Amino acid sequence: MMKAIFTALLCTSCLLSATPVWSAAIEKTWSTKYDTYFRKYSKRYFGPNVDWRWFKAQGIAESALRDKARSAVGAKGVMQIMPATFAEIRKKNPQFVNVDEPRWNIAAGIYYDRYLYKKITDIDFFQHRLYLTFAGYNAGYGGILKAIKRAQQPREEADWKRLKKHLPKETQGYVSRIVSLKTGDLARR
Predict the structure, then answer these.
(1) Domain CATH for 151
(2) Residues of the chain with pLDDT > 70: what percent?
(3) Is 78 domain-assigned?
(4) Which of 54, 131, 146, 156 could form a disulfide with 160 if both were Cys (CB 3.0 to 4.6 A apart)?
């Protein structure tokens, strides 16, 4: 009886939580299967000085690196790209053949990160700008603009520390998960 109640609570919390729940054992053994793609496309879109593990951490936060992952709203693959978003990205990158192929899914996700990063022009500090990029990936660019408005700050004074409390809790958790993964498990590899 207790086991059934615990299982029901766990399943309910998984459905309600902003961040998927994974066991600690899995977290210590993240696959290296897609590292080549994370390295290649982070270098292509962010340059050689940006650590590719940021984007792998994002892939873990999005799907636990599962290439067959599907969300309730239709997002697909490792980077949980919406088909309509992939179609838009593909207009500028016709070589991105199929959202269901991990290579192109990861490439599109990192390309979209770069697109968001370039739109966040008023923040000079790289780390804060990258965090806001991840927040935009999760909540949309409009979500960032709403947070700036709620914070009642001029855009030129906006930074992650001031804005994060004005973002949805889900987005705050999402970015925290990426930072935790990147500075924890993935930093040791």
Answers:
(1) 1.10.530.10
(2) 79
(3) yes
(4) 131
